[in-house]
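Most newcomers find our protein records easier to grasp once they have seen one. Each record describes a single protein and holds just a pair of labelled lines. A learned vocabulary of local backbone shapes supplies the integers on the structure line. Nothing more is needed to start thinking about how sequence determines fold. The record below serves as our worked example for the rest of this section.
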Amino acid sequence: MKTVVFRMRPALVALALGWATAGSAQEGAPVTLDFRAAQQRLVERSDAVEAQNAHMRSLSAQEAATRTLRRPDVDVDIQLLDYQKTLILPLGSFTAAAASLGLPDRLRFQTERSSTRPIATATLPIYTGGQIPATQAGARAQVAQAKADLALTVEGQLLQLTQAYFGQQLAERALAVRRDVLTGLESHASDAAKLEQERFISRAQRLQAEVARDDAAREYEKAISDLASANAVLAGLLRAPSGVRPASPLAVNSGPLPPRDTYLAGALEAHPQLERFRAIEDQAKAGLDLQRAKTRPTVYGFAQYNFDREESLLTDPDWSVGVGVKYKLLSGLGRREMVEAARETRNQAQAGRREAETQILIGVTKFHNEAEAARRRFLLLDSSIASAEENLRLQTLSYREQQATSLDVIDAELGLGKARLQRAQAANDYIQALAQLLNASGRMNELPDYLARADRVIP
């Protein structure tokens, strides 16, 4: 696989071209991967990335082919001929003498024969009106677009990985919370049954506890199914049939992100979407130059050599060299209209680039705000969880002392589970928004570094 270099994106290039090696595990055992290793494994094994790599290599080869357009074309043409040739020779001033001898005023010769014509012809472009430079520029722009498309494919895959990798962990946390809630409500239902037998509570309160326990059991079963689906998604994405065990936990950096302008500063320079539109713009410009060049004359040199002079036709020279000028006077295809069409294609590319710049700036602002909101929400949930834990403890004691109802305990148990789920969800929202922010600012390769600095981990 060839090495491809993206300007200002070396880390993504290393991933795309497989410079790093992902960890492996024994057959049948889940593969344990931190997020950086998961990124490497994904890009190495992604068929979408390999397809884009193959496309880029194809265009690179085509671009290399255009570098020799100024060289001469040399053709060898060998023909086997069976022909008839008639020559008529006027006698001119000998006409009267020929008439006295009974001869016609002109002589006619005819021959039939077979021969071969081995002829070599060389043609050298001298002036093409700008067609060769335009063709070469267009080929280079196609390669630049393919590189940008590769970077976009890699980033799209990494975003998908971020969703799957931390989505699996969110599903694991949800399952743990649902299990704890179910365990707590099973204990509460058991206590309620004992208290009913001792006539300390009514049958209705015992039924409330059992209904809540059954609801929790259904939520627990759903959490099992959700986790199985999340496992399948991540395992399929990383081509790991035995499954994947994430080593990078859900985590949040308690400190605020750098100011939004920090991300805006590099977004318009490093984002591959803008590189793509710049390449499209360059292709449109090359197309316009090519259409203009077609309205100009071309000058070429040529040479021809006949390898079989004995068998050649009378009209075939032994060799010839010369210079030719070619200019199309009329064409069924309107040349001015083609130039205008190419100009509008360039205008379209320029408008697309400006729109992409606007969308990137909007995206940076949006995802920066979302990441900060998720971070603050995560921090605020610490006190909520502490309060919910204390409330559950007090409600359970009060219930046993007949100072609270079964419904109070159920609400406290569910409230604690909800707060824990909200905190895990806030951590996942933070990571997903951060990934989108880095993607929008052309810094997706920095996400593992951000995660390594996170100081608040979901256990």
Summary: The longest helix spans residues 131-197.
